[in-house]
Amino acid sequence: MKSDQSIEKELAPACQRNLKSNLRDKYKIINEGISGHVKALLNEIYTELYITEGGVGDVNQEHEVKQIEAASRKKSTQERPIKCNDIFKPLPEQNQPIRTVLTKGVAGIGKTVSVQKFILDWAEGEVNQDVLFIFPLPFRELNLMKEKKLSLVNLLQSFFPETKDLKPKHYKRYKIMFIFDGLDECRLPLDFQNNENLVNIEEQTSVDVLLTNLIKGNLIPSALLWITSRPAAANQIPPECVDQVTEVRGFSDPQKQEYFSKRIRDQDLAKKVFTHIRSSRSLHIMCHIPVFCWITATVLERMLSEAESGEIPKTLTQMFTRFLIFQIKHKSQKYSGKSDIDPQQTRTSILALGKLAFQQLEKGNLIFYEEDLRESGIDIREVSVYSGVCTQIFREEHELHLGKVFSFVHLSVPGVFLAALYFFSKSTMTDFLNSAVDRALQSESGHLDLFLRFLLGLSLESNQTLLRVLLTPTERISHSNEETVKYIKKKIEENSSPEKSINLFHCLNELNDHSLVQQVQKYLRRGGDRRLQKASLSPAQWSALAFVLVNSEEELEEFNLSKYDPSEECFLRLLPAVKISRRAVLGSCNLGVKTCGNLESVLNLENSTLKELDLSNNDLQDSGVELLSAGLKSSHCKLQILRLSGCMITEKGCCSLASALISNPSHLKELDLTYNHPGESGEKLLSARLEDPHCKLETLRVEHGGKTRIKPGLNKWFCDFTLDLNTAQRRLSLSEENRRVEWRVELQSYPDHPERFDVYPQVLSRERVTGGTGRCYWEAEWRGGGAVVALSYKTISRKGGGLDCWFGGNINSWSLSCSDNSYSVLHNNNRTDLSTPPSGCRRVGVYVDCPSGTLSFYRVSTDTHSHTLTHLHTFYTTFTQPLYAGFTVYSDSSVRLCKIE
Length: 901
Description:
Leucine-rich repeat, LRR (right-handed beta-alpha superhelix); alpha/beta; single chain; Rossmann fold; seven-stranded antiparallel sheet
């Protein structure tokens, strides 16, 4: 007979073999598809998902559809990938072992399948064999034990009877792992703050207390824990209880292609499917989610192989309409010859599910229980009918014989479609679509955005025709979509939320209206950004441009606001494009405090790609920098370069920036605060961050500071200079201490001078205008018939009447020609006509920034209370010599240099 010691030694391995065998049987298959593909071997169908390090800190408040769209644009080169089986391996910079991993990901992205594959690989002896036991405990099953009192040992024996012979000491002696899948489905309080502490695994208590003590490390501190969750629920776990955060990003483009090649046996057909989804941006983005790839494969495999006729789906509504029709047909075929499903029963079942989906959508539930079904009027005894009609959308599960769990297979997409279908079938108002648009716009979370897309798509007659088995003639809407399109465009014009506008363009796509986008694309094709800069676009067209930029297949490396319209209004409309760029150039764009509030939200985005931000020469002031610093403090902020040159920042603003660098020291490497007024104390605060070994800041620039730098607008760059009498042509007379020049009939008796213009009535300044800073702003006022205001190198020719002497006629000068009838700019004899300023406005401003290579002209409107600049034109170039101001004075005219207080 074997000794007790021998039996004890063999007990754990025997239990492990039984556990592995049962887990292998449970997880080796995956429910995939319909019509002959009900079950598939996981190892055959599995496609590796893209998993990365995930951010910690604030919850991502964006709706999951927006997170999907954002994640689909991220290049894999921007992040460090982590293999599913390696999530407990410390990264190179991590010195401590990892006990608890929290994996985030939107619904349907593949978290549960990743868990399934991890367990299967362990059970088959492939990986992680240092772990003796893995105990998968999905939250949806733990919910059913909410009212029970039991010990941790009792709990594990209930779920895993094959381990009932294990003694309490075994759980502490061996390396074990708990996997808690679906934190977002948890209906337990998880009160980490008030639950009593528990260290005895044999002591009975509630499941809630068991879980909080396991996660806190009071129970079996040596155990490994893996928790998965949708992003919005991830903050239920205290950050101090988590050692590693990862994020499932879904499929990259190569992984999408790999999935279709595995899912569809005919490889030529698989290529056709992938080519089709690449042609539809909305489908391509949604295929970032594995479950949508499966739905797409289910539909397109049949349609592209000509097993089904009809228009190939290009929108989300068309795709899900086809998917639902296939489900109904499949069930009809399955039951033919036995007991055909009654069309009326089919309709009743699906609309009942739609009602349930609509109610759960409003509550935000992914799973539900018997009481939820009763509340929706669904007879529990007839649930098999509902799941039978729509087996791949609605699922009934039996867990531990304790009760039943029901779920839509990924409520985030198919369930929302059913909710829209139900709402559509029950709506009688003629203007209910407009009301739905209004309601979606009022939702701060955006949880109705996808619902609205589907609802509008269902209003198309073509989709209603496909769904005629579900929609009775009285429920179908027969109206022109033109009114709905017009209403949505009106809302785009009025709406101040750029994100809401983006979704409204998706809605227009569902209605097959692309007119606004096509208008902007026409501008881009004809002349690119410069064409848009000259165009007077409506707010709706600016929003259309944002939609075009956001949905481009190419990554937006740089967003430069000055290429479009340097204004706060345009910035707000194009904010979605800023969010997806790696470098945002917003310098000299008339931005203020409001902009900083919006940029704070950009920096706080969990998936932010922004690495470089240039806000130079905007009047942000300390209040704006304080808002910006709040974004810099966020753990999600990965900004490396921040330029705030000439932004009216004082010691107070520097204090905010220093505080942000203390809170988030890991990323910002370069900070430009030149042309501000930080004062000695402000410089000291920030310089201390350079000495901080934990702070990554390498470059801090604070030159050219002083009190003059906190003047508003371009006034901080004001330069005072005089005109050079030795350059004045003899028709010109100087006065007012050489600050005014006037054209005269009689020639002036000036001596000969090599620098004097001898033909054109022109004059240059005595002093170079850019001085030591490389920046200068000045204003001039003309009277009479007109004048030319210019900047020129001193090397411009002076003798003769050729273009080499005329301001703007050569490569050495740039000019603005002004008269009551026309305004134009000229450089190297290339002329651009401008819109004529209002009558009586004869004052112009000139700003040159040599370091950035820009020269801008402005119309200046002044009265007793205001001093307003209107941008006329900007030259972009590289200045190679010192610059001087110049004037050409027309007959019977004069020009005067203005003083600015």
